[in-house]
Amino acid sequence: DQQVKQNSPSLSVQEGRISILNCDYTNSMFDYFLWYKKYPAEGPTFLISISSIKDKNEDGRFTVFLNKSAKHLSLHIVPSQPGDSAVYFCAGMIGQFYFGTGTSLTVIP
Amino acid sequence: KAGVTQTPRYLIKTRGQQVTLSCSPISGHRSVSWYQQTPGQGLQFLFEYFSETQRNKGNFPGRFSGRQFSNSRSEMNVSTLELGDSALYLCASSQRSGQAISNLDEQYFGPGTRLTVT
């Protein structure tokens, strides 16, 4: 059973606009959430994380929002750049990491 | 500091065979986790090793096994290969030591081993 879900397999955004990637989870016991970015032929690289006791974490152009009541988190990229084109995975952690299926982001120049 | 390395990068095997994949973590990292990535399934957790002991295990059949050596290097073995085992196998290392959550839990992934079973 998929405990972390990314219901949008793909997303296209114009360069300079905001990209919003969404993630839903079912396990309210998750302590920590992380976002990873993956380019083809490379392993995922860590992007940003958020503790379950917070509702927002910012790092440069990347902001993650956590809505615990809705069991939903989102990653905002502002402004989007062509180099952001990649597959983005969200993950929840409790003992081990549970990853979503990924969203492929394409930023159009 | 060198990153996580995985060997081989590509592998083609036939059904019924077995395969061993290798992972060398970042120096100083004692936790090594293995994941299977298939289209539409995301990253599925296989197992985690810490100090040569399996600490967590995902929901995979016993054909999937692993081990960790005293230098933290890890191997994953899949026996009696099936067509459905074709996937990208990723290894990740971290400084994570205990079960408590901290910023040490950040995992660093290797490039993966692409296994094709024919």
Describe this structure in words.
- The complex is a heterodimer of chains A (109) and B (118).
- Chain A has 109 residues and is mainly β.
- In chain A, 0% of the residues lie in helices and 58% in strands.
- Chain A has no helices and 11 strands.
- In chain A, strands 2, 4, 5, 9, 10 and 11 form a 6-stranded mixed sheet that branches. Chain A has a 5-stranded antiparallel sheet with strand order 1-3-8-7-6, with no helix packed on it.
- The radius of gyration of chain A is 13 Å and the shape is globular.
- The model of chain A has no long low-confidence stretch (mean pLDDT 93).
- Chain B has 118 residues and is mostly beta strands.
- Chain B is built from no helices and 11 strands.
- In chain B, strands 2, 4, 5, 6, 9, 10 and 11 form a 7-stranded mixed sheet that branches. In chain B, strands 1-3-8-7 form a 4-stranded antiparallel sheet, with no helix packed on it.
- In chain B, strand 7 (64-68) and strand 8 form a beta hairpin.
- Chain B is globular, with a radius of gyration of 14 Å.
- Chain A binds chain B through residues 2, 4, 6, 31-32, 34, 36, 41-46, 49, 51, 89, 91, 93, 95-102, and chain B through 4, 33, 35, 40-45, 48, 56, 58, 90, 92, 99, 101, 103, 105-112.
Q: Compute the CA-based radius of gyration of chain A.
A: 13 Å
- Report the mean per-residue pLDDT of chain A as an integer: 93
Order of helices and strands of chain A: EEEEEEEEEEE
Low-confidence stretches of chain A: none
Percent strand of chain A: over 45%
The N- to C-terminal Cα distance of chain B equals 37 Å
How does the major sheet of chain B shape up?
7 strands, mixed
| Chain pair forming the biggest interface | A-B, 26 and 25 residues
Oligomer: heterodimer
- Sheet-strand content of chain B, in percent, reads over 45%
